[in-house]
Specification:
By secondary structure, the protein is mostly helical. The protein is 61% helix and 0% strand. The chain contains two helices and no strands. The longest helix is centred in the C-terminal third of the chain and has 24 residues.
Amino acid sequence: MAKADMVTCSFKMNRNLYNQYKSIITRSGKNVKGDLVQYMQGVIDDEAKFNNAGSNQRS
């Protein structure tokens, strides 16, 4: 049974693109899934910082 707060992601991508990406990130001991999740969290964090910075400016 899947947890309610989890989602399964499935998508297709170009094998050459995947292999190049995997080759780059595995050099630093990372894996594709973990790196993609970390990247997504970074995008969310950056968006939150951007939105907070904008709300602190006066009109």
